[in-house]
Amino acid sequence: MTFVRRRIARAGAAPLPAALAPALRAAFAPALRAAFALAPRAALALAPPAALALALLAALGLALPAGAQAARVLVMGPGGHVTAHQDPFVLAGEPTPPPNAVKATAAAATPPKPKKKPPQKTVVSELKRLLTSGAINPTQYDTYSSSFNAALNAEHHLKGTRATELEAVITNLHNIAAGGKLTPGRLPVLFQTLDRNREWWTTGPLLTSGQYVEFSDSQLVWEYYAGQGIELQVLGSFGKADGLYAAGPADYAQMEALLAQIIPLAVNRAGGLVWEYYFQFDGGKPPWTSAMSQGTGIEALTRAYLASHDSSYLQLAHQALAVFTAPPPVGVQVATPLGARYVQYTFAPGTSIINAFLQSLIGLYDYAQVSQDPLAQQLFNAGNAEAEAEVPTFDTGAWSLYQPGLEDTLSYHELVTGFLQQLCTRTQAPVYCTTAQHFTAYLTTPPVLQLLTQHLAKGKPATISFQLSKISHVGIVVIGPGGHTLFSTSASFGYGTRSFAVPPLKHKGTYTIHLAATDLAGNFNRIVGTIQVP
Fold first, then answer.
1. Measured between alpha carbons, how far is 254 from 414 in angstroms, rounded to an integer?
2. pLDDT at 107 over 80
3. What is the chain's percent helix, strand, coil content, to nearest 5?
4. Helix (H, G, I), strand (E, B) or coil at 288
């Protein structure tokens, strides 16, 4: 019997049968059409991937990385038939790294257990409670109960990875119920997630982590997280909507169809509408959300209004602002002396990820300009004041930082450069414009190396230290007094003071040290120095 079945059995559950759009679009639309014709790459999250966030960059017509390409998406059709194609609105790239060395916050921690345990809540008992209280009707109850039973039955007949992945989704659902968070508003998205996973793992192929998945009867984007199953990619879905808007009027109907599918999956959180994530991620327990995905949702709703002139999209965008007014773990606002920071993960309020912060500001700005919503303008102003102060601290002088102390990958460096360029265009703030210029220059600037070690003791294991200006792959060659190569190796290093361990140097004299570095953008530099062994 599986873990899920054991937990349910122990719980005693019986099995159940305005203003910005025209000029902005006119300026960006031609570049966007060209970008999508070239099948660009994008980034996400939230948890969310850099690939999906780069989709937003593409959707605004800004420069994309060289070699950018559309993501390979697996689409499941009727009868479980799966085909692969390149979706130009879901762009390839690496998943968003988790917060660096961040543990679950005290607010998200499991509360102390009471001395007397009440009966454990389960999916079954919570559905019964919702039915009895009138929160759901008998038809809904039967639908969700049948979905849950079908998933349990399918998991029982699966083996290996397929069983593990479906079980993980069932377990997340069970834990949400046990935590008293199986609210009526969450039922549609949670049971759609359950049904999609049952459909995939019983009929579809095995997946590699980070693979994007779609279904032929839906516009939504899903992503495979190994050990967590297929999960709704909120950032990716809203990013796709942005891309469809940017592609032009011929794709507006598809954009509105996508939004019609994701809007009902929002829940009430922080007094407004929020699109949540329902899987475990780096210490964060579901349900959690992200300023980046929420800001992108606001952006997509704003664009849907521009395309359709349907004011209901702006009304929904206004309701989506509430999460920016509340602190974690419910909301995404962390108050600062200057204003506010909007965080990537509600379960990691101490983690500042600059690209996510900037993208959330872009969404708030564009909505505020179109709608003239005073709350949106207030939220943008508070975040903008903080961001203008923070942005220089993410500039190392040679590369960008993803979060304090952690350098960006190439795709994230290009991503944050694009976001800075967008904010420069919108606000004309010198800090955005100047930092964007710096980051652009770093793409063609070779890494700087400096040999720090000058003397080593004879016959003892040692390290050779050097200073490196930016994240690079570094090679070292040690040549002895007689001109023979004694040691060589290479490794990747972040910026700062770094070192190689070298074998004992057995002879007195002068040793020649060659150091060579290639950064993430392919820029190369080398130096030659000497070390004395007395």
1. 28
2. no
3. 45, 20, 35
4. strand
